[in-house]
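Thread: "does anyone have the structure for this chain?"

Original post by V.I.:
We have the sequence but no experimental structure in hand. Need at least a predicted one for the grant figures.
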Amino acid sequence: MKKDKHYVHYWDEKWDNPEIRSKWILPAVELLDYIHTHPYLPRKVLDISCGIGRHMLFYEKKGVLAIGLDNSPIAVKRCQSILKENNKDANVVLASMYRMPILSGSFDMIISLYSIYHGTIEEIQELINEIFRILQNGGRALINVAKYTHPINDELEIETRTYIRGSRKNGIHHYFLLEEILEMVSLFKLEKLIETDNYFVLHLKKCNMY
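Reply from O.Q.:
Generated one for you, tokens below.
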């Protein structure tokens, strides 16, 4: 969040836990499906909220320059260590996804999985706009957002379908309706939409017409 010191502490604790880290080593199935749909290799990839670098390592092994961004110092440290152990460049930036120090048109691929819905509606829209800004014309993005499936009774609702979970321990979650996320990404061309039990997965393209 824009005021996210508390959440940084939560993510530091998470990434410092070996049991939790072990669950985030292999590339996400959403990325593997994306590669199957779009087999071309980008030149330069940004992984927003990269964690310990599973997707960075995946692309670096394929010869693609991968840059990671995360707001957790522990995640950045672990990510750098894992990449160096694999003799890969450790290009990781310690920064909030809401304050990305990145030039416009810098990347032809952006990944943001299991991350961008950790915010208010306004913040998520700002982040999606930032992804659009950072992408080159013709560049692509892979994102997923949490899906609203039923009333959430054990969390504090602070705006429509936006909840604070676990007494702010792991921050804010917004749960999307399909028409809502489609409106938020309307600047992009939607190349593919996948709906699972709990998430919407979107393959997006920044078209030259924009």
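V.I.: this helps a lot. The chain has a mean pLDDT of 89.
O.Q.: and Residues 5-205 form a domain with the Rossmann fold fold (CATH 3.40.50.150).
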